[in-house]
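Suppose you are handed only these lines of text.
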Amino acid sequence: MRIFPCALCGHALHFENVRCLVCNSKLAFVPDLLAIEAIQPETNGLWSVIDIRGGEPSANRYRLCKNGTVHGVCNFAVPAQDRNPYCVACRLTRVLPDLNIAGNRERWHAVEVAKRRLFYTLAHLGLISPAPPPAHRERLRFEFLEDHSERPVLTGHTNGLITINIAEADDEVRARRRTHLHEPYRTLLGHFRHESGHYYWDCLIRDAGRLDSYRQVFGDESVDYRQSLKRHYDTAGRATDWEARHVSAYAKCHPWEDWAETWAHYLHMVDLLDTAASHDAFFAASADCPAPPNSRASPPGRPPDGMEFRLLVARWVPLTLLVNSLNRSLGQADAYPFALSRGALDKLQYIHEIVSQVGSNRRE
Ligand SMILES: [Zn+2]
Ligand SMILES: [Zn+2]
Ligand SMILES: [Zn+2]
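From them, the structure of the protein bound to zinc ion can be written out as follows.
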């Protein structure tokens, strides 16, 4: 996720911001521009993007997402001509937890923040449209559920529907599961990325005639799934010998989980590289000139800017070393507790090539 320059004062803006901390401009994420933008009110409750970078002023008008105006959990804009009161990301959520229960609104907020970050990365890669035609319905949907005594909620994916147990939004619960299941990296965003992997396996492998090449890289997914998972949990996630060919211990339990774990890892890479690149551009621009840097997001459908996998890895390794060193300097644990083996890299490369293909098809 990149940082965005405020159009009015040049201050660095985060994806979640709703106001510029320096010039107090109202902000929104504008999906068709894939960027956080300063906005100004127009007539009829509509808003326009403030652009003092020199181009023709845009005639586009927007509303703010209803989940932002009513609940304060969304900062996305909706094109004025789109009749849906919800933004392109919120309309994918079908079931919400009971907001009358104390703490659920905060959990929902945390879950939506992670979901919108996933949405951005998918849009950035050209895997989902940031500005679909008004009547379009995505197959990808979300439901956010809470545990009931008789029916525990399992985070998972079925047929385009991603279910998230909102208890995962509680730091304490997540930390306990992280230790119990031996998963050094367990985050809400990680869950979204992993589950989206199952959805894109359906779309990009099963339904796209890539089963043969997939099996060559990940193995035969027709082996018994339940048995495989049971074996994994029987050993409390303490699988051994996974490093040579997998990104995580959990990835070893079944080829589907291997794909989803590798997919999630690929999205971590893309996102962190995007963040680093935008900081480079931002610092370079603010060092040279006081004017706001002109770094509108690149158009959608750009897997790390068309980068070759070899280059991606060449940038990735020093970047993760830097991230971990920064964390250690602050007395924190490594933010990136992984080391990628050749076998894991081959799988990541397979995903990179498919995503690049899909992204460039969408651009054409
Ligand atoms: Zn500002
Ligand atoms: Zn929204
Ligand atoms: Zn999974």
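What can we learn from it? Residues 194, 198, 257, 260 surround zinc ion (ligand 3) (CB under 6 Å). The chain has a mean pLDDT of 87.
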